[in-house]
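fyi for ur records
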Amino acid sequence: MPLSDLLYLSPYITLGLGGLVILLTGLLPGTHKVPLFFTALTFILTILLSAQQLNAQHTVENFVLINRFTQSCIIFFCAIGLITLWMSVNSLSLLRQLDEIFYSLLVFCVLGMSIIPSNNLIAFLLGIELVTISSFCLCIWSPNRYGAIEAASKLTIIAGVASAFLIMGIAITYLGAGSLLFSEIANGMNSDKGNDIITFIGLAFIIIGVGFELAIAPFHNWLADFYEGAPLPVVSFIGTIAKLAILAWALLLPYWLGESLWQYLSPILTAIAIISMIFGTLLALKQSNIKRLLAYSSISHLGVILIPLAFYQSTSFTVVIYYSVSYTLMTFAAISILNSLENHQKVITRDRLSGIGRRQPIVGLCMTLIILSLAGIPPLSGFFAKLLVLQTTLNNGQYAVAIIIILSSAAALYYYLKLILVIYQPIQNNAELKLERPILKHYHLLYWSNHIFIILTTIIVIALGIWAQPLINYGMGIR
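which gave:
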C-alpha cells in the first residue's frame, strides 16, 4: 500500500487508534475526565482530517471510498458523536457510570459507520458488524435500568439474524455475479458466467438483512424495546446516525447497480416504505410511553425517507440528505429534553408530562416546536423535508404513494398534537415529573449546557425550514 493511501485513510486510522488509546487511559489515575477528553479530541481530529479530504476522489484497495460524500458523512458522524458525549455526561441515568470503555465504544461505533458507505461487500459487512457489536454493549451499559436486559437480548438475537441474512446474501451475490464490488454486479450478471436469478436472490437477502438493521417494517419488532431499555443518549446515537450510515450506503447503491438493475429493486423498496409508514403510524397511535412512541414514529419517518430512494432521480440524493439531517436534529432535540426529565427509576409516560410546559415554559416551547416539526407543520424543517419527498413522488407520477404519505402524516398529527395538549395541561397537585438537577456541583454547568443545546437545536430546526436552500445546495454538491 502506497504512503498516499495511508494519508487518505487517516480519518479511519485516527478513529481506530483513538479508540485503543481511550481504552489505555483507563490505566491512568483520575476520573472519567481523561478518557472523555481523549474521546472529544479523537472526534475533533477526525473532523479536521476529513475536512482536508473533501475534494479528494480516491478508492483504497477497492475497499474504502474517499470522496466528498463519504468524508462529509464522517464529519457528520463525529459531530453527532460529540453531541452524544455531551448528553451522556449530563444524563442522570448514566451518572457515575461512564468510563473509558463507554467512550471507546462510541468511537468504534463511529468507525463502523464510516466504513459502511463502501462499494465493497466485505467492507460494508465489517462496518455493520462493528456498529452492531458496539450498539449491543452500549445498550446494556446500565443493566439495572428498566427493560435493559430485554432490549439487549432482543438486539442480540436480531443482530444475529441480520448478520446471517447479510452473509448469506453476500455469498449468493458473489456466486451469481462473480464480484464483491457493488459496481461490478450488473456487469457480472451480463457476463457468460453470471446468473441473474442467483444474484437477485442474493440481493434480496441483503435487503432483508439491512431491513433488520434499519428496523423498518416488517423487521421492526426489537426497536421499541431498544428505545425503552437503552440509556437515552445511546438511543439518540444508535437510533439516528447508525441508520443514516446504512442510508448513506443505500444512496450510492443505484449508481453502482445501474438503472437497469435498480428498476427491479425499486418496487421492493416502495412496498417496504409503504408498510413502514402505515405500521409505524398505527403502532404509535396507541402508545402512552414516550420512548416507544418515538420508536414507532421513527419507523414511519424511515418509510418516508425510503420513498425518494425507491423512485431514484437526480433530486433524490439531496432530498434524502435534507430529510436525514432534519430528522437527526429533531430526534436529538426531543431525546435531549427527555434526558433532562428522566431519572433512572421511572418511565416517562404521556401523563407524567402533564403541565411541563407551564412549569418550564422554555423547555415546553422547545418541545412543542420539535413535536410540530416531527409532525410536518410549516415553517419547520420537518414540513419541508416531507414536502421535498412529496415533490419527488409526484414527479415520478406515483400519486397513490403520495396519498399514503399525506394520510400517514395526517394520522401522525393525532398523537403529536395530543402530546402537545398534555404538555400544556393545567398543573396537577400530584404531578410527578419535574426537571431534575444533577446532584454534584461540578455537573451544574453541564446541566444548563444541555438546555442551551436544546434551545440551539430547536433554532436550527426552525432555520433549516426557513433557510433550507444552503443545505440543499450542499447536498447537490456532494453527489
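The first strand starts at residue 58 and ends at 60. thats all i got for now
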